[in-house]
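Example (one chain per record):
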Amino acid sequence: MNKKFLTIGAAAFAAAIALAGCATPGAGSGSTPGSTHGSPGMDHGTPAASEHTAPGSSAPAATEHNAADTVFAQSMIPHHAQAVEMSGIVLAKKELPAAVRSLAERIKAAQAPEIEVMTGWLKDWNEPVPSSTGMSGHDMGGGSSAMAGMMSEADLDKLKAAQGTEAARLFLTQMIAHHEGAVTMAKAEAAGGSNPGAIKLSQGIAATQQGEIQEMRKLLAAL
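Predicted structure:
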C-alpha cells in the first residue's frame, strides 16, 4: 500500500485535488491565505509545525480533511525525506562552500520536523502513512522520477561521488528542481485542501522554498 502512495505522479496529484474540490465545495474557505509565514529562506517548519506536533489533540476540526490533504501529506513525506537525504550527503563532504553548507543545514533542519508533523496528521486521519526512509530515487525508468522533482538513484549516486565545488554545483542544481516540485505540490494543496493546518504548512513550504530557489540560483551563478 505504501509503495502506491510513494509513486504518485503529478497528474494523479492534480486529479485527487480536483475530486476533492468537487466533493467538498468551498472546503478551502477555512484557510488563512493572508497569514504570514516569514520571509523566504526562513525555517518554514517552525510556525506551522509547532502548532501541530500533536494533531487533533486540542481542536476537534484537526481531523477534518479531504482527499487533497491526504495526498499532500502522503506525497510530501517522501519528498521531504529525499531533501533531507540529499542535504545529509552534501554535508558529509569536505571543502564545501560555507554558503552551500549553511543552506543544506537549513533545509535539513526545516524539513525533518515537518515529516513528523505530517505523519501525525495521517495517523489522526486514519490514513496510510508512507515510509520516510529509503526514499532515494523513485526511478520509473529512463532516469525519470514519478513524483515532481524527485531524484533518481543515478542522480543521488552522482551527488555521492562528487566532491568540492562540483558537489556544491550538483547539489544546488538538483535541489532547485526538487524545490520546484515541492512548490507545485504545496500550491495544489493550498488551492484544494480543507484542513487548516495542512493548508498553512503548504503555504509556508511554497513561500520558503521559492525564496530558497532564488538563493540557490545566485549561489550557483557564483560558483
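Caption: The chain is about 65% helix and 0% strand.
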